[in-house]
Structure formats: structure tokens, C-alpha cells
Amino acid sequence: MAWPRAIIHVDMDAFYASVEQRDRPELAGKPVIVGGHPTRGVVLAASYEVRPFGVRSAIPMARALKLAPQAIVVAPRFEAYVEASEAVFAVFETVTPLIEPLSLDEAFLDVSASQGLFGEPGAIAASLRDRIWEQTRLPSSAGIASVKFVAKIASDFAKPNGQKEVPPGEERAFLAPLPVSRLWGVGPKTEGQLKGLGLGTIGDVADKEEAWLSRKLGPLGRHLFELSHGRDERAVIPDRAAKSVGARDTFDEDVVGQDALSPHVHSQALRVARRLRKAGRKARVVHLALTYGDFTALTRQATLSEPTDDGQTLYRAALGLLGKLDLSRPVRLTGVSAHGLDGEAPQFELFDRKAPSKTERLNAALDRIAEKFGSKALSPADVLGDQEDEARAELRGRLGVRKHDAQD
Amino acid sequence: MEFRIATDELKKALHRAQGIVERKATMPILSNVLLTATKGGVSVTAFDLDIGVVSEHPAEVAKTGSLTLSAKTLLDIVSLLPEAGLTLKKLPNNYAELTCGNAHYKIVGMAPEEFPKLPKEDTANLVKISGSTLLEMIKKTQYAISTDETRYVLNGVFFEPREGGKVRMVATDGHRLALVERELVGDFKLKGGVIIPRKGLFELKRLLDEAPDAECQLGFAENSAVFKKPGLVMVMRLIDGQFPEYQRVIPKEGEKQLLVSRARVADALKRIALLSAEKSSAVRVSLSENLLRITANNPDLGEAKDDLDVAYRGASLTVGFNAKYLLDVLGALDGDEVTLELGDEHSPGVLHTPGDRSYTAVIMPMRVP
Questions:
Q1: Are A13 and A89 found together in one domain?
Q2: In terms of CB atoms within 10 Å, which of A100, A294, B93, B240 comes out highest?
Q3: C-alpha span between B181 and B158 (Å, rounded)
Q4: Is pLDDT at B267 greater than 80 in this prediction?
Q5: pLDDT in tens, A297-346
Q6: How many contacts, defined by CB atoms under 8 Å, are there between A and B?
Q7: To probe the interface with B, which of A347, A349, A352, A353 has the most B CB atoms within 10 Å?
Q8: pLDDT per position as a tens digit, B126-157
Q9: Residues A164 and A186 in one domain
Q10: Is A87 a domain residue?
């Protein structure tokens, strides 16, 4: 029987490392780390052979090599990943137009309306993974559920090279034994807070009254209550239909003061601008989102005099907004997003109306460098120190995808 | 001034004036027509400082003289008069008395001396032309004229005499271009080409439409164009500026060529564009072996697709276009079949009659997500 709503989360297994192992047979079955600078860079991908040693993506390279000195370190080849990614997304497109990319190697697919043509969601996922393998020789895993959040967790369960289905009605049972840290929006801090309340598993949260959770946790309480029951109304939003483009980062440790915050905001503005340019769109409104350590969340917005896809322009606007906020308190998250996007499909010009401005040429050059060498190749000086959360976010930026965000 | 004229004659003159008189006139007198009675008849002049039309009509003139009256008021009156003839008489203080049967009007006018003088047209080198050819050329190009006033050199049609007694007319709005070349033999004494403004061209078209086969003359003087046909003179100021180098943007013969049925493609475009993004009418045109597919989608409305069988063997291609631009061309082309030439998704599409590039339309694609 067809599911009323069917979402598949497909995630490639150790994507970059798998691409390297595929293209260099001598690496097959070996512990492989794809990463940049050996002392200052971060791990971009770790093959399954090196994971038992505790190496995973986004940890510093230095630490990874201490954990697994025998690992073979390979420099990233972004073109190869982009190429593989395109082949993977081409397979996605054969079953549904509703594809929400999360990064080069990961996407949500809404296949609710595809069941009539292609069968049950589980069968669709199996066929997708088969065809991905046929086309790219890369392993992938899939989670199948009626909501995004559960599909995402299910794909983690299925790894590597498997799939896990959570049929409608079984969400709560599936989630119950999992630690609360698996809930979207629960970082180490909230996790500690929940543990303090005696809530160690998602089932513990689900057993509580919503009112009780709200009293203890504020708005987050209601959100966690819904998730713990496997309820997640968020739709799969294809990028072309997105009404806004944003980048936000939750910091590992709270950040205090404008000087410490502005590089993050700068990096976010640049990522947003790159995505805008990639989508061929311009934004008229800039939003700055900020969440304090105590989870008080603020958003401020500014309207630009003319639509832009330039990162520095977005940054100046966001910085203006940041300056008006109380920055003496610890901040756990900042985000920049672009709204008021010009939705018209742009018409090409017959005559070159005017030479592109200096900024446009600069941005085009930066985009080409990022395309070729990865977007870490060239960064404004203040953004350089912002590497930790950049690594994955960058890759998202390259594809022009949204970051999931529990608070939205 | 006093004359008796057929109601229909005056109505015809006022219809001609209609498109020219300024509605929201900065100068009130530009809302008026100038009526001049001479021994030979009555002339009705409308002028907006750029375009002027003098329309001559037979009348029994009892007393010569001139007067200006509101073009709109006079047309409204004339349209509802009870009888086939009327008399018009100038009264003191620029009043006019209009009598038709038992209907009687006293109309406020303005002094004829205040009516601005039309540009001199007697220096123009007039060339006898075929009105129907000129009309065809206008119809085939006018839709591509830009309405963006910041690009004023594109607010008209480029009129360019070529060798061999031919004239080329080119219009573009920067997104699409229409070029037509036809025989209009005669020496226009022009160096290069001139730009005829949109409004003047539309008026010219209306005048030609009245009687396309009437004997016509066209000529150019200093900074204006002159058009004459029996009982009518039209003068208009040309657009002063450099028309872009249009030849540069007309592609050489495209590698992906196909023959399509004009009516079928137009019908498909109309039905698919219903679901295109608002305002832009963006559609996707996909070409693969023996198949032309037109698709559109709008996040708020849904999606649509239509397939046409075509004779095509070549590389597949998908390119976005504004459906309205394609339809404008398909509407202006003659014949049942049309040649469509495509490059890639960034290159212009070209349409023309099979085997005949004397009328060529070039359309830039759009980025359709």
C-alpha cells in the first residue's frame, strides 16, 4: 500500500574516500583519509577501514593521524567528487523532481507521488542504490520514512551500503532507544540539559508531557516533543523553488564579542553569495540570525538598495545588523540568509549591455578558483581562522544547498 | 473661417489625429487639432512635437481661416451627429459653432497661432514606394521594438537602404531582433540608416492600413521622415543616435536546424505557456531525435508538456525561451512551415521561412531553472 508521504534520505558512504578508492584500486580496503593540510586542516572524509580508530570527518588532521598513523592521506580532488555527485543526482532525478540536496553526497527525495509509477518506497530506494552503483561504482545508503528527520536517522542506521525502512506508525518505536543527541537541534549543551532532567533517550522525551517539556526547555521543548514522536512537517524543498538562501553555524563553543563573531558572519555571507551566484539569483533582503548561549534567538533584517549576489555587500549589511545587537553575551549560533530573491528566470542579452563590474569579475574569478581547488583555496584573512565548521559547510556551499536546521 | 463638410470626412480626419494628439498634454494646445480652411478644402493637423499628420479633405469653404479645437471633444461630437453633413464656423474669441441638422454646439477653442509649426518637409527627397511592402516590413519588425525608454536608440526601427534597390528594417529590444529586407527601389539619399520611432511607426502603419495599395512616397530630411499619400502628409522626428551593430548578433547558419509547422508550434507554445512562470512566459524547448518537446513549470501552478514530431537527427538540446517572443515571430512569419535554428542553451535561436532569410528573427534564450 502506498504511503501517504514517503521520503528517502540517500547518503553516499564515505563519499570522497570511496571515490578515491574507486579511482585508485591500490587504496581499496585500505584506511584512507581525504584531507588537506596535515597539521592545520580537517578530515574531509574517512574510509570505513579507518573509522574503527575513531577517525571521522571534520576532526583536525593532526588528531586523525595520531589516532590512525597508518592511514593513507589523500588530497581532495573536488572535480572528481562534483562529477560523481552529478551522476548520483542524475539518478535521483529519474524518480522525482522533489530533491532537496544537503551536500554533494546527500539528499532528501520526496517520492510520495512516485509510488504509483515505481512501487513501494523501499523498492524505489533499492533501485536508486542499484543504479547509483551501476553508474558510479560507489556505495550508498538510504533511509526511508514518512518524515525527513526519521529518514535521515534511518540512513545512518543502514550504513554502510544498506537501507533501513521505518514504516508509518513505527517512528516512535524506532526512535525511542536512541540517545537524545540524535534529535535535530540537540547539541552537547542541550544534551547535558536533557540529561539533567533525566532524559537520556528519545523515548524518555516522548514519554513526557509536552507542557512539561515546554516549561523546562521553552520553545525547544515543543520542538523536541514533536520530533521524539517522529513528527516533522518539513517538506522536501527543491533548491530551485527555495524562497531564501542561508548559511548558519552552531559554534563548538560559545563566542563572545564582535571581533570574534564577524569572521563567522563573513564566511556565512560569502557562502550565501556563492550559492546565489550559482543559482543565478540576487537578493534584496539580508537576514542575520543570532542565538545566544541561553537559546534566546534573534533575527534582524536589512533591505539593500539594489539586489546583489556579492558576498562583501551581504557581509556589510549583516555586519551593520550585528553591530546593533548585544554582543557582550555568549553567542552559540549565527546565520546569514538572503531573501527577496528575484524569481524571474533571467533573459540573456543579445548585446553586451555593459562590461561586468570589477566586483562581478572578481566574484567570477573566485568562483572559478573555488570550483577548481575547493573553496578553501582562497579566503578573506578574517575567515581563515574559521576552519572547523567551514569544512563541511563549504561543501554545502559548493553545491548550493541548505544546511538542515532544527530551529527553522 | 466657415465650411461645410461631410461628417464622415471629418471623422476620418479626427481618427487619424487620435493616435497623435497628446492625452496628458504638458502643452494644452497639443490636445487640439488645427483646422485650416482654404479654397481647396479643409486640412486637419495633429502634432505632438515629434509626429505630425496633416489630413486634407474636400469641403465647401465659405470663408477661409483656421482654428484649433480639442481633438477628443470634436471626435466625440462628430461620432454622434445625426446627419451626413455639418457646418463649422469660427466665432469671436476662438469659439466654434458646429451645426448638424437640429444639433447645435458652441465649442471652446484656442488660437491657431499658438499651434506649434511642423518640421519643414519640402527638403525631403521623396521616393515612390509600395505601401503594402512598407506595411509588411513594419508588421514583421514592430513587435521587437524596445519599450525601455532608457535604451532610446532601440525605441524605433532601423531603416537602412541596401544595395540593389533593397531596404532593410531592423528592430530589437536587446533580447530579440527582427530583420526584414524587401525591395523599395529609389534613392533615399541616406548615409547609413535612420531610426524611425515606435510611435511614428505605429501611426504610419495605421495610415497604410487604410489603403495599402494607395500611391505612397517616403523620404528623409535633416532629422525627420516624411510620408505622403493622396490627401495626407505625415512628418516625424527621427531618433538621434547610433543603432547597435545588429549584424554581429545574427548567428551564421545554425547546426541544429529543423522544420516545424508554424501553427502547431504556436498552438503548443500557447497551451504550455499557461503554466510558465508568471511574467516571463518561460518555456523549455527540448530537441532530441525526431522530437520537439515544449515544457513549462511554475511552482505555484504545476507543470505542462507537449510533444511534437519533427524531422530532426542531431545532438539533443534543451533551451529556455520566452514563449511570447517565439509567438510574436510565428505570428509575423508567412507560410505553413518555419525553419528553427538552435545553437546551445546560451546561444540565440533563429527563425525564418524555409530557404529564405530575407526575414529573420533572432531570440536570446532564458535561463529556465
A1: yes
A2: A100
A3: 12
A4: yes
A5: 889 998 887 788 898 999 999 999 999 999 999 998 899 999 888 754 46
A6: 47
A7: A347
A8: 999 999 999 999 999 999 999 877 678 999 99
A9: no
A10: yes
| CA A241 – CA B348 distance, rounded (Å) | 26
Point out the least confidently predicted range of A397-406, B78-87, B218-227, B279-288: A397-406
The total of structural domains in chain A comes to 3
Cα nearest neighbour of A353 on chain B: B174
Nearest chain B residue to A98 by CA distance is: B299
Pick the closest to residue B288 from B244, B265, B258 (CA basis). B258
Q: How much is the average pLDDT of B208-231?
A: 92
Among candidates B176, B244, B279 on the partner chain, residue whose Cβ is nearest the Cβ of A344: B279
Alpha helices in A179-310 (DSSP H): 188-196, 202-207, 210-217, 219-228, 258-279
* Residue A296 Cα distances to A1, A178, A260, A292, B220, angstroms: 44, 27, 19, 5, 74
Specify if A20 maps to a domain: yes
φ/ψ of A31, rounded to 5, equals -70, 115
Residue B24 pLDDT: 67
What does residue B173 show for φ and ψ, rounded to 5 degrees? -115, 15
Instruction: Give the residue from chain A lying closest to B172, CA to CA.
Output: A350
Average pLDDT over residues B231-260: 91
Of B177, B364, B367, the CB nearest to A345: B367
Give B-chain residues touching A343 at CB under 8 angstroms: 277
Are A349 and B367 a contacting pair at CB < 8 A? no
Question: Least CB-CB distance to A348: which of B177, B277, B366?
Answer: B366
Catalytic, out of A106, A171, A390, A394: A106
Instruction: Find out whether A47 and A32 touch, Cβ atoms under 8 Å.
Output: yes
pLDDT tens by residue, A40-69: 567 888 999 999 999 987 788 888 989 999
Question: How many Å lie between the alpha carbon of A353 and the closest alpha carbon of chain B?
Answer: 8
Residues A77 and A217 grouped into a single domain: no
Domain containing residue A376: CATH number: 3.30.1490.100
Contact list in B for residue A240 (CB cut-off 8 A) is 369
- Which string of DSSP letters, residue by residue, matches A39-68? TT-BEEEE-TTTGGGT--TTSBHHHHHHH-
Q: Collect all residues of chain B within an 8 Å Cβ-Cβ radius of residue A101.
A: none
- Which set of grid coordinates corresponds to residue B237? 522626428
Distances (CA, A) of B282 to A343, B134, B141, B326, B330: 12, 32, 22, 11, 16
Q: Residue B232 has what pLDDT? A: 95
Active site residue A106: yes
**A221, A308: one domain:** no
Same domain (yes/no): A373, A306:
yes
CB contact (8 A) between residue A350 and residue B175: yes
- Enumerate the residues of chain A whose CB falls inside 8 A of the CB of residue B174: 349-351, 353
* Sign, Cα dihedral of A95, A98, A104, A106: negative
Please tell me whether residues A157 and A293 are part of one structural domain: no
Same domain, A104 and A137: yes
For residue B283, list chain A residues with Cβ-Cβ distance below 8 A: none
Shortest Cα distance from B369 to chain A (angstroms)? 6
| pLDDT for position A387 | 42
Among all residues of chain A, which has the CA nearest to that of B368?
A: A345
CB-closest option in B175, B364, B368 to A345:
B368
What predicted TM-score, i.e. pTM, was given to this entire model? 0.56
Q: Are residues A177 and A164 in the same domain?
A: no
pLDDT at A398: 45
A130-144, A152-166, A271-285, B42-56: segment of lowest average pLDDT: A271-285
The more confidently predicted of residues A253 and A255 is: A255
Report residue A36 as a C-alpha cell: 588537506
Q: Give the residue numbers spanning the domain of A191.
A: 172-228
Q: What is the mean pLDDT of residues B193-214?
A: 94
Amino acid symbol at B262: R
Lowest mean pLDDT among A74-83, A185-194, A380-389, B72-81: A380-389
